Each structure stands twice: as structure tokens, then as C-alpha cells.
Amino acid sequence: SSDFNLGGRAYAKLAVMKSQSDRCFSDADCNLLFGELKLHNLIEKALQYGSKDAWTLSECGRILRYTDLEKAISLLEKSLAIKRHSTTLHHLGLCYELKAKQKAKYEAKRGQHRYGSNIKQKSLRFQSEIHESIEKRCAVQNIIYNRDDPCVLRAIDYYRQAIDMLYVNSPARFSLGLLLKKCERFEDALRQFDQIIDLNSRKDGTSSKQSGEKQEYLFTMTDSYEQAGLCLLELA
């Protein structure tokens, strides 16, 4: 059983490398490392060997988030059923946030279509095609999520579970802050960003809730300052 788990983890590691190969490796290196194996082949192999290994399931679910969202959710949930882990909870939250994002984009596009139809009906032809294109891009980039959307609520719940399990999980806290900000819950979002700044500012690298546990995610510090500032601008 342990040998199978190790085999699953090995293929999962290769799948992670393959998913990042465009950024990290040349074509020659990719051919040398992976041969004709595609990403889905590596994931299939990982699951063949590590179907009962929480780590393998979690890694495969994380990789599949942008290519097969439903399968990603299924794998992450199976991983949690075997062993709860803060990182897995975080990635499950990211999956549900992505579902909420897809829904919000669809609703935004529908709204743009209705808006465009009304313009035509009223014969308001003074808007140029370039202006309309810019408006559409801005609308997609500044999507506001419905705070009562079940996917949003599930994402928030998973982020909070991840933080409760590991108080110094700054990536999960940052994801929570961003999602709350997208729901226009600026005060709640600001609290999350301020908490990250506080955790990262401690000289001993410990949190007030879990003394002695090192803060590992310093890379969110600058982003948290930026997002906190944006929240303050909205609240001003």
C-alpha cells in the first residue's frame, strides 16, 4: 500500500511539473522529462497508484482546477474524507470561488447584451465600437459577486475552515479577503488583510493564536498592504 502511495505521489509531482512546464522548461527539457506523456496521462497514473492517498488526491485536484473543475472538487473532497488538511480546504474554496466567478461572468455578459439591445432600440448610435469594447472588458475585470450565491458561501466557509485549521495560512486568508472584497464586504476584507500584515510583521514570526508556529507565507505581505489600501479607499 505504501509503495502504491509513493508511486501516486511521484506521478502527482510529475503532473505538477508538467502543469508548469511552459514557464519552467524548454521544449527539449519537456521531451526529456515527460516524453509523450500528457498532463492527463500523469494524473491518471497518479490516481491509479494513489487513489487512497490524501496528498495525491489533493495535488491532482489542485492541478485540475482550471481544466476540469468538477473533477477537481471531487478529488479534493475525497482527499478531505481521508485526511483533513488546511491546504486542501483552501484549494476547495478556490474551486467554489471559480464556480462563482464563472456564474458572475455569465450574468455580467447577459447584462451587457441586454444593455446593448436597449441601446440599439433607442437608436443611440453615438457610442463607438472601441468604446463598447473597453466597457465590456472593464465590466468583466470588475465583476461583483453575489454575496448570497451558494458557491460564494461555500468558498468562504472552506477558506475559514482552512484558517481555523492553520491560523497562519496566509494564502487562504488572502483568498478570503479578496473574495469578501469582490462581494463588496470591504470592512470584513480589510480585517483579513490587516491580520496578514500583523502576522507577517511579528519579529518572532509567530501568531498570537499559535505561539511558536512560524509564519511561512511572507510573499502575501505586499499584496495585503495593497488590498488593504484599496479597501480603505472604498470605505472612505
Helical percent range? over 70%
Beta-strand percentage? under 5%
Shape: globular
Query: How many helices?
Result: 12
User: What is the H/E order?
Assistant: HHHHHHHHHHHH
Q: Based on helices, strands and strand pairing, what is the structural class?
A: mainly alpha
Overall radius of gyration = 21 Å
Beginning-to-end CA distance, first to last residue: 58 Å
Mean pLDDT: 82
Weakly predicted, low-confidence segments: 115-140, 208-216
Total beta strand runs:
0
Largest sheet: none
Keywords: TPR repeat
TPR repeats: 170-203
Write the layout of secondary structure elements.
Blueprint: H1 2-19, H2 21-24, H3 27-34, H4 39-50, H5 54-63, H6 69-82, H7 86-121, H8 129-141, H9 150-165, H10 170-182, H11 186-201, H12 220-235
Helix pairs in contact: 1-4, 1-5, 4-5, 5-6, 5-7, 6-7, 7-9, 7-10, 9-10, 10-11, 10-12, 11-12
Report on the architecture of this protein.
There is one protein chain. This protein is mainly alpha-helical and 236 residues long. 75% of the residues lie in helices and 0% in strands. It is built from 12 helices and no strands. Helix 1 (2-19) packs antiparallel against helix 4 (39-50) and helix 6 runs antiparallel to helix 7 (86-121). The termini are far apart. Keywords: TPR repeat. InterPro entries: TPR-like_helical_dom_sf, TPR_rpt. TPR repeats lie at residues 170-203.
